[in-house]
């Protein structure tokens, strides 16, 4: 049996930078944690919470990472099941089979014999563990926050990026596009450009030029192509929503005349023939009545619980809180930004209190946290950002559909106005579905649905000109989106 963690570090394994830490206590600033740990052909990045193989990120769940980090910290010793469960699910009583699930996931990733089971006691890591080289090109530039419930998305996105030179991660405000892109590109040599502040083609070109180190007073597409053409590079165009219309000439030229690969995160696709779209949907929500360990396998609940614990370490999902938390995840459609904003309110309202206040979600779900991007300060701001990206006739139709009972059909919509053009109406509906502002289901009967959060927002908008909408005056906002 190993002694204390500190004794392990100082006497038995001085070269192991993880040995002084429990996984839940990893502090990104520690110099030791910027150094990867080699586990056979794998590299474990403690601060970035990344696992790489041959320089490429490997998809791994947060819990499996925690198990692996503790086994690596204790290598070559055995680690008891109770200690593993306490570290990986702190403050929760979980069934042992949850640990077995994570171990078998790790065996799939690392190889069948990489983890040895000692029946009745625990597990040990059966790979050579050595410190890796720090400061190489593949070190993640910024440690992305922990990614909950996205192991499958990460794996699929990495697969698409390996096959296509232009991939757009498409999804609604706050669904987690940028965080997923950070995880997908961590460890790759990439130029990361945040385009959120850019509203026109000139600023967009200047911003991209600045990111890739092109020194030009008035950068143009040709100069960027020439500059990037010399070396293979992954260009990440993050938050491209507002300049998605201005990007195609640049991206098209880069794909045709340079070795650049491009990853875009956006709510508005580029509509280039080479574009491979990855549609990012919200986090999975557990079915009502799920027992605790099973419920925690769903990303929405995992994120809500992790953030709630971040605000108060005593937060627990015990008793009736679990059912309320599942319902909260469902009501917020598993949207990560909404879940984060909700978690911040739990210390003052409780989960049940929050559920009772969801009719006021557009004002209740808000933060004053300094440094938060303006569009992510509240649920209202996030939806307003998506709304502002719509054309006026798209806005008008969307607000109109908020008044229809859900689900509504194309026929319901057409019946509201005798002279509505069906082709144009389908174009508008297509855009609203693509932007995740409406959901289309083909069964049991074809119909469109709007989420409760979107409905509250749409009903608050001033009546679009020329539409007889009869919206109740009380729903109109004093702060329309712009
Ligand atoms: N899977 C996840 N696990 C943990 N946190 C998440 C996850 N997805 C999103 N978040 C958090 O939710 C918030 C919104 O995520 P992010 O900024 O990536 O969304 P986005 O889709 O890029 O939004 P926008 O359209 O505003 O750019 C961030 O604080 C992010 O850290
Ligand atoms: Mg983003």
Strand-helix topology:
Layout: H1 5-12, E1 37-39, E2 42-45, E3 50-53, E4 56-57, H2 62-74, E5 79-80, H3 81-88, H4 96-110, E6 115-118, E7 122-125, E8 129-131, H5 151-163, E9 166-170, H6 177-185, E10 190-194, H7 201-212, H8 221-229, E11 234-238, H9 247-257, E12 261-266, E13 276-279, H10 292-295, H11 299-311, H12 320-331, H13 336-356, H14 361-364, H15 379-388, H16 392-401, H17 410-415, H18 422-434, E14 439-441, E15 447-449, H19 452-460
Parallel strand pairs: 9-12, 9-13, 10-11, 11-12
Antiparallel strand pairs: 1-2, 1-8, 2-3, 3-4, 5-7, 6-7, 14-15
Helix pairs in contact: 2-4, 7-8, 8-9, 11-13, 12-13, 16-18
Adenosine-5'-triphosphate is lined by residues 145-150, 171, 173-179, 239, 265, 267, 299, 303, 336-337, 340, 375-376.
Number of strands: 15
Residue-averaged pLDDT: 83
Ends: how far apart?
63 Å
Describe the biggest sheet?
Answer: 5 strands, antiparallel
Name every ligand kind in the structure.
Answer: adenosine-5'-triphosphate, magnesium ion
**What coarse outline follows from CA principal-axis ratios?**
globular
Q: In order across it, which strands form the biggest sheet?
A: 4-3-2-1-8
Number of helical stretches of at least 4 residues: 19
Instruction: Give the fraction of residues assigned to helices.
Output: 40-55%
Poorly predicted regions: 1-34, 133-141, 466-482
CATH first level of the largest domain: which class?
A: Alpha Beta
Label the CATH architecture of the largest domain.
3-Layer(aba) Sandwich
Relative strand content:
5-15%
CATH superfamily of the largest domain: P-loop containing nucleotide triphosphate hydrolases
Specify Rg, calculated over alpha carbons.
25 Å
């Amino acid at each position: 049996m190993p002694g204390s963690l500190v004794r392990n570090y100082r006497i038995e394994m001085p070269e192991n930078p993880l040995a002084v830490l429990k996984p839940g206590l990893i502090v990104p600033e520690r110099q030791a944690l910027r150094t990867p740990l080699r586990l056979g052909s794998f590299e474990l990045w403690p601060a970035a919470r990344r696992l790489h193989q041959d320089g490429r990120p490997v998809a791994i769940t947060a819990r499996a990472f925690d198990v692996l980090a503790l086994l690596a910290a204790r290598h070559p010793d055995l680690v008891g099941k109770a200690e593993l469960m306490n570290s990986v699910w702190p403050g929760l009583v979980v069934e042992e089979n949850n640990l077995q699930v994570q171990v078998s996931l790790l065996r799939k990733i690392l190889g069948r014999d990489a983890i040895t089971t000692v029946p009745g006691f625990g597990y040990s890591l059966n790979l050579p563990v050595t410190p890796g080289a720090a400061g190489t090109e593949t070190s993640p530039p910024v440690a992305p926050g922990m990614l909950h419930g996205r192991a499958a998305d990460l794996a699929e996105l990495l697969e698409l990026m390996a096959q296509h030179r232009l991939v757009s991660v498409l999804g609604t405000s706050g669904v987690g596009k940028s965080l997923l892109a950070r995880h997908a590109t961590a460890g790759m040599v990439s130029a990361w450009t945040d385009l959120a502040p850019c509203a026109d083609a000139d600023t967009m070109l200047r911003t991209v030029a600045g990111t890739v180190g092109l020194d030009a007073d008035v950068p143009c597409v040709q100069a960027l192509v020439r500059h990037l053409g010399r070396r293979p590079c992954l260009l990440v165009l993050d938050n491209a929503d507002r300049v998605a219309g201005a990007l195609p000439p640049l991206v098209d030229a880069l794909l045709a005349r340079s070795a650049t690969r491009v990853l875009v995160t956006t709510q508005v696709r580029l509509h280039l023939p080479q574009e491979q779209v990855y549609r990012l949907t919200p986090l999975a929500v557990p079915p009502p009545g799920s027992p605790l360990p099973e419920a925690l396998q769903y990303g929405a609940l995992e994120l809500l619980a992790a953030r709630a614990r971040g605000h108060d370490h005593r937060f627990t999902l015990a008793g009736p809180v679990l059912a309320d938390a599942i319902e909260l995840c469902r009501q917020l459609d598993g949207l990560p930004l909404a879940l984060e904003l909700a978690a911040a309110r739990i210390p003052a309202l409780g989960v049940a209190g929050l559920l009772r206040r969801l009719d006021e979600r557009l004002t209740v779900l808000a933060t004053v946290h300094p440094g938060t991007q303006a569009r992510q300060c509240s649920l209202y701001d996030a939806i307003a950002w998506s709304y502002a990206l719509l054309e006026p006739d798209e806005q008008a139709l969307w607000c109109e559909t908020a008044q229809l009972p859900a689900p509504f059909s194309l026929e319901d919509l057409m019946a509201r106005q005798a002279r509505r053009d069906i082709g144009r109406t389908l174009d508008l509906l297509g855009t609203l579905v693509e932007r995740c502002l409406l959901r289309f289901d083909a069964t049991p009967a074809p119909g469109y649905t709007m989420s409760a959060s979107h409905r509250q927002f749409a009903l608050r908008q001033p009546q679009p000109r020329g539409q007889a909408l009869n919206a109740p005056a009380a729903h109109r906002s004093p702060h329309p989106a712009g």
